Amino acid sequence: MIWRFAHRWLGLVAGTLALVLSITGTLLALDPLNNAIQAAPTEPDMPVATLVQRVQATVPGAEEIRRQPSGAIVVYAFEDGQARALRVAPADGRVLGSYQPSLLPRWVKNLHRALLLDDPGRVAAAVVALAMLALSVSGLVLLLRRMGGWRRLAGPVRGTLAQRLHVLAGRVVLAVLALSAVAALYMSAATFGLVQLDAEAEPEVASSPNGQASLPAGQLPLLQALHVQDLRKLNVPAADDPQDIWSIVTVQGQGWVDRYSGQTLAWHDTTTAQRVHDWALLLHTGDGAWAWAVVLGAMGASIPLFWVTGVLLWWQARRSRPAIEGNSPLAQADSLIFVASESGSTWGFAQALHTALAAAGHRVHTTALEHWHVPPAARHVYVLAATYGEGQAPAHAARALDVIAHQPVTSAQVAVLGFGDRQFPAFCAFAEALEQTLLAQGWNPLLALERIHQQSAQEFARWGQSLAQALGQPLSLAYQPRLPRTAALTLVSRQDFAGGAGEPAAILRFALPGRGLPRFVAGDLLGIVPPGDQPVPRYYSLASGTRDGFVEICVRRMPGGVCSNYLHGLQPGDSAQAFIRPNPGFALHGSRQPVLLIGAGTGVAPLAGFIRGNARRRPMHLYYGTRDPARDFYFGEELQAWQAEGRLADLHTTFSRTPDGGGYVQDSLRRDAARVRDLLARGAVVRVCGSRPMAQGVAQVLDEILDGLGLSVARLKQRERYAEDLF
User: Fold this and answer.
1) Taking the C-alpha atoms of 601, 604, 606 and 608 in order, what is their torsion angle to the nearest 10 degrees?
2) How many whole angstroms separate alpha carbon 314 and alpha carbon 144?
3) Is 305 in a helix, a strand, or coil?
4) Where are the beta strands (DSSP E) in 611-716?
């Protein structure tokens, strides 16, 4: 909880200044690349003395020679009383042109390092650097929690578009941002004198003429021993000052040389603090390492995306947590609702349960799970718990199990309701841990643990029916999810099927609207909002993607089904209100690994969408079960055409209600065990879509097939090679 709290508020508070620094940092990162392109090459191991001789031959009056981090040589000289700065080719001393630093990089650098405010700005920049370091560390901890550790850090990212973008940007930004922030803090410490870079003061030395002539640079041992590639600055003795000396600063240290004898008067080695400062400067600016500068530029460009998606996630969580209306005081309540929610969406279900119980005459108190306390007067306790990442508790409820373990047990009955996503191996794992803890302590169960997949309003309503039976009184859970903006989809065609069990089905194709729908892929969900005063969306797996140019679903008409009957009543030209709900855990990611597709009935729809979009001819193998090929062989003609085109490698069908139809789809898998085992041994990914009983049968057969490989369905899920879309 501390990590998430720190990450969230540091991001929000320091985010604006971080945006300024990221934009200016990105611009500054381009400067080293530009300088490296313009710099003339230097011969390897060229002595400084050689460079000085070449410069003095072409630039009369040269007083100072500097080597820029990019490798460019700049000479400062006076000629006819005018100061000049010239770029020089080290190979021959030839003047390449005047040197004039661009005003824009200088202005941007001042903005980046001091916010154009001198010392107060430097202090502010240092504070932001410290905040960025804390933000990076907390973000890295949360990222590891979400992805399941270091080994899975580079794996596919699941969640909404904002969540995926935030994690992807974080993977680019966090490590480099932390390194850059540490470097910035060290440089700030040096600027304010907190770190002493020079161990010794500059010596008071001077040349002694004694009637001697100054030696040429080629006869100075120190200048012969030092290399141009290590040079930073060299000062040439002034012609009108006989006591002036040579002074040179290099990577190794700083030296002073007598102009007449060539003797090294003093030498100070570079201190460790100075070497660290040099590395900090390189790591923070990229100056002198153009490839690293490109990395820094990419990082800086990613920060705005990182910040915007972070703010969006915070705002979505804030909006999702409602203020509970009619919350009875804890001491007077007979029903308690405790909530653990990562994104805030579980609070909407809590409000619906609270409202239903209050309408049934109960005094209800709803609060966060970490506030667990059950007074003796409470008769029923409800725990609504979401699972985060790889089975962890939501951040605010991280210590809830410890809190519960230290509270006394009462006579109240407890029901735990879990919320999660079946695509994650640890589906509702935190809710399971809660129930186990409560039962182990001796709490009386009111209902067995139930699990809600992807915030399903229908599953929540079914749980409400079970709760009503347990309480022995009518109870209506009217959960109204916050709906995204919908778009009007116009039906352009429909294929009707009689249905193998007497329940008609139809493949409905809608025109892709010009605007209103985000990009989607096969396997995402289409939320249909039927007309009515209290519309509850129903979700259908998409058999098409945006690239196909249409929106297609397969719908079986259910007896009494509000939405399915509404859709079956549509005719070409009619329209329906809909929105896209991403289903990233089920989507197929780019790869050449073979794909094992397993579906039954209308569950073939997203699998057909995968095959339709298989333009790269990735090996796809479909095991498809229906009842009767004459009544419910959905996408039959299309599948045969796609197989002929090479989009589908092979098709295995079973028809359970026809003679010699082959039974069920799991029977087909068992008959083809050797081939299935070979596909899975070669790294095939698996997608299963259909009813839960079918999926359970498929998983059982696959576990039998995988036994000899040391694999299982559970392990495939952990490795993100197995995903289900069930109804």
Assistant:
1) -150
2) 19
3) helix
4) 620-626, 650-655, 685-690
pLDDT tier for residue 116 given thresholds of 50, 70 and 90: very low
State the Rg of the chain over Cα: 35
DSSP string of 536-588?
A: --EEEE-S--GGGTEEEEEEEPPTT-HHHHHHHT--TT-EEEEEEE--TTTSP
Determine contact, residues 301/311, Cβ cutoff 8 Å. no
Torsion of CA 405, 409, 413, 418, to 10 degrees: 0
Q: Is 361 helix (H, G, I), strand (E, B) or coil?
A: coil
Q: Which helix (H) or strand (E) holds 459?
A: helix 457-471
| Residues linked to residue 576 through DSSP beta bridges, in sequence order | 489
Tens-place pLDDT, residues 563-593 = 999 999 999 999 999 999 888 778 887 778 9
3-state secondary structure of 274: helix
Segment 295-344, tens digit of pLDDT: 777 777 677 777 777 777 777 666 655 567 788 999 999 999 999 987 77
Write a three-state SS string for 158-224: CCCHHHHHHHHHHHHHHHHHHHHHHHHHHHHHHHCCCCCCCCCCCCCCCCCCCCCCCCCHHHCHHHH
Residue 90, CA distances (Å) to 40, 44, 84, 228 in order: 7, 11, 18, 9
- Terminal Cα-to-Cα distance of the chain (whole angstroms): 34
Decide if 542 contacts 605 (C-beta within 8 A).
yes
d(C-alpha 571, C-alpha 576), whole Å:
11
Express each pLDDT in 286-308 by its tens digit: 676 767 777 777 777 677 777 77
d(CA 22, CA 28): 10
Sign of the C-alpha dihedral, residues 460, 466, 470, 475?
A: positive
From the list 27, 23, 35, the residue with the least C-alpha distance to 104 is: 27
**Strand-pair category, 253-257 with 264-269:** antiparallel
Please provide the size of the chain in residues: 727
Let me know: does 179 contact 283? Beta carbons within 8 Å. yes
- Single-letter amino acid code for the residue at 546: T
Distance CA 230, CA 198 (A): 18
- What is the pTM assigned to this prediction? 0.59
44 beta partners = none
